[in-house]
Amino acid sequence: MPDLWLYHSCRIPQNEIRLILVTNPASSEETPDSGPAPTFAQLGLSDVMLASLVAASYHEPSPVQAGIIPRAIAGVDVLGQARTGTGKTAAFAIPILERLGTESCGPLPQALVLVPTRELAVQVRDEISKLAHGRKTRCQAVYGGKPIRQQIDRLGRGADIVVGTPGRVIDLLSRSALKLEKLEFVVLDEADRMLDIGFRPDIEKILRRCPQKRQTLLLSATVAPGIERLAKRYMVDPEIMDFSPKNKTVDTIEQHYFSVDEERKYELLVRLIQREDPEQAIVFCRTKRGTDRLHNKLSKKTPSVDLIHGDMQQSARDRVMRKFRAGDVKILIATDVVGRGIDVSNISHIVNYDLPQSSDDYVHRVGRTGRMGREGVAYSFVTPEQGIELTRIEMLINTLLKRDEIEGFQTVATAAPPQEARADAEPAEKKPAPPGQRPRRRHRRGL
């Protein structure tokens, strides 16, 4: 049997969700009933789009693209569940560009794409602009951290597609600088992340301002109850397409952990970088202050190190990401501001210097590598007190992480050596526990 991508069937009140079962194009097996993986040409795309895909080095559609593109071109509302790094941006950008045509549509935007972070807004805009090769389609990104006047001026000159964060979109709507009367398409990208960071009121306010007669595409790594409520209220008979693998993380990512004392983590990181010599790596810390401290220390020992977190000015964050994408930065120290949606193809290693606060965030962190079928490796530093956190991660991804060690490096402090025993010494007598108190037991991490 070939692997199958199952598009989940469920029923949301007042919205009928259709069931589709599609052969996984990535499967290497073939049966008489399952033909070869579809090509972009077989998806019914125009010659202009096929030429732009060749120019962008898109050779064949990913499973997410092969599933969503035909349904979106047909005008169907789609709720797509898929992890990051599977080609979601092109899956919604291609149908929008195809339906808009090759000419500019006028001064008002025809499509609005909402994303959770500034970095993702820039990335999605650049991807759409690349796929719009050979067209006159104009795409603008709007997000906080940059002067709003510049963005108002760009919108005044006309934009067919607007990509933005919910907060900045609300600001522009309140100033009447962004008008949604002509919208035909609305996309919610990384919808679960937008809800996680408190954008739900802004999203609903924006959707209420959009024309009722529109097509809505919602992309999310998970379909939690909040996502279902959005679909019920703002989508019309959406098809739910689930491209999530059985395991939360993909087979192309090797996952390891080190047991290490807190005070030895920095030296372990230095040794690990020396051993692995990564092509590019992201080192995740929990806090902005911890990111600053680690960057100050590591940049003195290792070349091509930079950092990114939410307290930096947007211009600085943009500059760091440009350098990272260009390969000028080899090791990026970051908070979870880049845990989702950032697509840099050469990331070979992920290091969880600090375990994330949420097990789901672990999945998104390691998803920065192993993208689009490439191989990658992830290492997590686990202190003796964090065994239960490691166990929760393993239960979530249904995989045991492999324990690793650096040859000749002691990651955990050893106990003081016992006094040398005499040959004729009596064995040490065990002290009984005080009355009414159970003897202490040592606990081991386990599933």
Automatic annotation (TrEMBL):
Entry GO terms, CC? cytosol
Question: Motif span (Q motif)?
Answer: 38-66
Keyword Phosphoprotein on this protein? no
Q: Which InterPro entries match?
A: DEAD/DEAH_box_helicase_dom (IPR011545), DEAD/DEAH_RhlB (IPR044742), DEAD_box_RNA_helicase (IPR050079), Helicase_ATP-bd (IPR014001), Helicase_C-like (IPR001650), P-loop_NTPase (IPR027417), RNA-helicase_DEAD-box_CS (IPR000629), RNA_helicase_DEAD_Q_motif (IPR014014)
Domain Helicase ATP-binding intervals: 69-241
Where would I find the Helicase C-terminal domain in this sequence? 252-414
Q: What is this protein called?
A: DEAD-box ATP-dependent RNA helicase CshA
The coding gene here is cshA
Which SMART domains does the entry link to? DEXDc, HELICc
A molecular-function term among this protein's GO annotations: hydrolase activity
Q: Where is this region: Disordered?
A: 411-447
